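Example record

One chain of 719 residues, shown exactly as stored in the release files.
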Amino acid sequence: MNQRLKKGLSVFALVSVMGYAQAQEQENEKKSMTDNPLLSEWTGPYEGVPAFDKMQVDLIKPTIRKGMELHLADIDKITANNDAPTFENTIIPMEKAGQKLDRAFTYYGIYSSNVSSPEFREVQKELAPEISEFSSKISQNEKLFQRIKTVYENSQNEPLEPAKQRVVDLIYEDFAMQGADLNEADKKRYAEINKELSGLYTKFSNNVLADEENYVIYLKKDQLEGLPESYVKSAAQAAEDRGEKGKYAVTNTRSSMDPFLTYSTERELREKVWKNYYSRGDNADEFDNNEIVKKILKLRDERVELLGYDNYAQWRLQNRMAKNPENAMDLMMKVWPAALARVKEEVSDMQKVADSEGADITIKPWDYRFYAEKVRKEKYDLDSEEVKQYLELGNLTQALFFTAGELFNFEFSPVEEGTVPVFHEDVKVWEVSDKDSGELVGLWYLDPYARQGKRSGAWATTYRSYSELMGKKPVLSSNNSNFIKPAPGEPVLVSWDDAETFFHEFGHALHFLSADIEYPTLNSGVRDYTEFQSQLLERWLSTDKVINQFLRHHETNEVIPDELVQKIKKASTFNQGFATTEFLASAIMDMKYHTTDPDEIEPDTFERETLKELNMPEEIVMRHRTPHFGHVFSGEGYATGYYGYLWADVLTSDAAEAFADAPGGFYDKEVANKLVKYLFAPRNAMDPAEAYKKFRGRDAEIDALMRDRGFPVPEKDEK
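Predicted structure tokens for this chain:
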């Protein structure tokens, strides 16, 4: 801290030396050491909850900085220990280190994902390289790594008990992958690359968010033809929220774009909405992401080259279920031809409908959803809007709770408003307990609605995870969606796809809530495995027990007719060409980007030419085009890992058949117990492949996936 501040100079005196802004920052830094609520131990009920009501943007910088300082001090205590390294004096204190920083990052994450603002984005931009530098100070701490390495090598000669051994293996592997064994010069360059990447990731995601906020289309009353009443009311509310009362807003998010393209009869408007959405980050302006993508790819490649890998994908996949890019690509290319063949059939069906109506058009990407819906009605007599009348958000939430009760023995009870602080008035909280014992398991927060400053999509997160080492405290989990907030008094009606996504993300929350592990590191996920549990939970939406109790008409409360249910099930493989192809195109491109020399990549050209080589249908685009592919370029969680959804889907389809074949079907107690015991509770305490084999009795097979999608099952190789 500035020496003159230590001597007690006033803020006013400092202004003349360093300017008011810098002086104010010093004051905030000082505050962070005393009464900063964002660094404080969580208080209140449930053994402490986040002080979301105390959040202030101007506290974030001092909070994160102080948290990083305290975490590094924890590490210094470990490395200052002169005793021979052991699990107890090295790994245990590592697991306990940085608790204040963990709490600080909870608030940082909320600002980043749920309530971002221009002020926060400036803070984020400034902190990103500092956070990267902090991470490097730990991952490249030579004394720390040598202690970890000693514990690891000793455990290879004298193995520890399984949970301890798994922790040691995971920590050692992570440090080795992060360059801990490099020489000093390469370590320095490695850290520089990470610092530069962190800034690029932040800029990439903020550019996408800017394009989502800047490209809003306002409609007049005569431009609403074909749109469902529920959408019109929500669009009116969205316009009013943006100061355009009397108009109707089509926002640049999937939750707004998708239904508009499905139902609007205004083809020119569909094209405009489509282009807005798929051009995010690709508008040749200050928010364009193409140059950022090039820089990211080059830096990632340089970094793994320091570690001796041929490409980024090779480095990233070594500790995933796929093990290497070849295995991941092999799975995708087994499915790709069948998906393309199905798209041809789908486009042919749509073109026939368009021709029969005298539309005089050739199907384009902005027509796909619109005419697919017409085909759905014609082939299956299934009206998506009719289905939505039975998919009301409150009922679906109760369906989640019922499913969790049947499979996990969990009970959900609403927490009285005001008992637990929330970061936005839309957020509701439930208590989660064991149905038999009444023992508290944790809390579940739900933030359901889209808003300015909230990133698009749906996700789950955890504010506090479970582990025996940290005192078995209640889990604090959350789900976050982007349903369009209805006009006052109106219901929230969602599509079948959105209902499945709601179940999917709740699967992640159940994974957090059901954890039964000893050490925090075992809460880490294996990317091509963690999606499996959540994808599996989607299957319960279409079970009889959920249908008969919770899929009820929002006005009459009548159960969805069996005839309509049968149409839904019959149409379950409908449009799988589109769904599989748009996803796989993104996943394959992700892998291609990270197995190709980045010097040969110009993103726009590379995307176009690679998709052409793959025979990508011109009527479909990637689900996430390169300039807004946040999974891959706003961080590293899904980089070369987007294929993981398909890998997980193989497990999902295979596991679903285990339930379907059981005497009690999807509510079979024996299979449910194995599901929790082997696939949810252990988190990463057990090798995923081993865990799945314990559940299923064998490895997963691709056949069930192909059956699920209505694709031909590949012939078995003769051995």
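Notes: The beta strands are 217-219, 248-250, 410-414, 428-434, 440-449, 459-464, 475-483.
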